[in-house]
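Question thread 4412

I'm putting together a teaching handout and wanted feedback from people who do this every day. The idea is simple: show students a protein as raw sequence, then show them the structure tokens that encode its fold, then repeat with a second protein so they can compare. Below is the first pair exactly as I plan to print it.
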Amino acid sequence: MKATFKHYITLNNQKYDYSIVKKQKKLLFFECKAANIAQEFLNEDIPELLVDLPNLIIAEKEYKTSQSETMRFRVSANDKKRIEEKAIKSGYESVSDYLRNVALN
């Protein structure tokens, strides 16, 4: 069984959950949805990450609130399925993130 540590950080009177799962001897998986982080880190990098976590949460919240405009367009059911599959294969959590990145980069 992998060791899992679950905790939260309080920021502006709100609690934000995060978890740390031991993957290997020197490797941990860190996840904090509020900061949009879900990846592996070396053990020695976790303390610095925790110190910077409030700033990362604030930056992610600002990023999300800055995206207030909506774009809509029609696609066929087949095209929609292909776009969703490509977004997942490319590692995106949402089709919006995928399309934004493809269009702007």
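The second pair follows. I'd like the answer to focus on this one:
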Amino acid sequence: MRTTVVFLLLAISSTVYGQDITVAARPSDVDLDPQRLQRIDNLIQDYINQNKIPGAVALIVRHGKIAYLQAFGVRDVNSKQKLRTDDIFRIASQTKAITSLAIMMLFEEGKFMLDEPISHFIPEFANATVLESFNAADTTYTTASAKRPITFRHLLTHTSGIDYPAIGSPEFRAIYAKAGIPSGIGNDGATLGDKIRTLAKLPLKHHPGDAYTYGLNTDVLGYLVEILSGMTLDEFFQKRIFQPLGMKDTHFYVPRNKRSRVVPLHEYVNDKVVRVDHPIYDGVDPNYPTTDGTYYSGGAGLCSTVEDYARFLQLFLNKGTFNGKRLLSRKTVELMLTLQTQQPITNQVGLGFGLETDNNDFRSIVSKGTFSWGGAFSSTYWADPQEELIGMLFLNMYNNPHGEVHEKFKNLVYQAISD
């Protein structure tokens, strides 16, 4: 999901968007060709007309100004209600970058060192083991001692050896399911600390630092934020990140007065788009954002709007400041966007997972240093520091077979640059 939107004249006050994201009077003011932007409209409308997606919200920010913001199609194929630009989406793994920001804010406060073992704060991770053999018939296994402890850096680069429930390897899907370890989406009846302490006693897929495995690393970081800050992850996000950035519509569990704005989840079945009416990952209710949960998944739990998430990304383009508030130093931002892993690890990742840096080999249209990621329900983003450009396309699709629309959208954003 590394791929990652008609322009509206909106009357938005500076108290809503702040000085660092305003609305461009016209796309040409930020060197985007309005006629070429029309190609984006055509692309997304074609996907809707072909019944491949129900709708989409698309956003482009350039030079700190919203140059393009549009909602297409419907938010619900049953009711035919039109999608709105302020509708709230499940952003799933887009949560990871926000958790990375949180942990690095605590790093700047001297709470830990990057190469410090996490067992100093979660003792259950002491004496970690690595899976040696697995019996699929009864899910029993044998282990060996890990060569080295898991560190904060391992978690931030997904090189700890922790796998993922629901979408990980067959062995670990079985091991985690037996232990009751969730993927982080919609597990409203548990608490993060309980599950992470249980996870800590289970084997790793490989020795820490030896390989890349996309896993529950950022959920562990979320629990470390709770330990180091003395707040729940929800409280830390709201007080330390969302309020300063003005992210007023980003939540783990959406407040009751906003639940009508949560976009229903859809999927593609028998050549048409239908609403999801069955459990999803880990047997989760697809309507989990409208529950009153207590499980704050740092890797997958948040819901948000395109405009809220643009504010978060602009913080990094601004090198750690937004609307006169500094959340990180310029040097920490540089560190987070610097590749951390080396061969033989094939996945080259930055320190702030979810802010994956593109080392562009000139086979992609994005500039070198662009960072991006996405979410399980077909939402994507990227931010290009050289072009001072942010792009986002949010769908509301489960197991979307037409994910190429995100790459096409990205290409159409860049072809509209006119300077």
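Top answer:
Good format. For the second protein you could add a caption like this: The domain at 98-234 is CATH 3.40.710.10 (Beta-lactamase). The radius of gyration is 21 Å.
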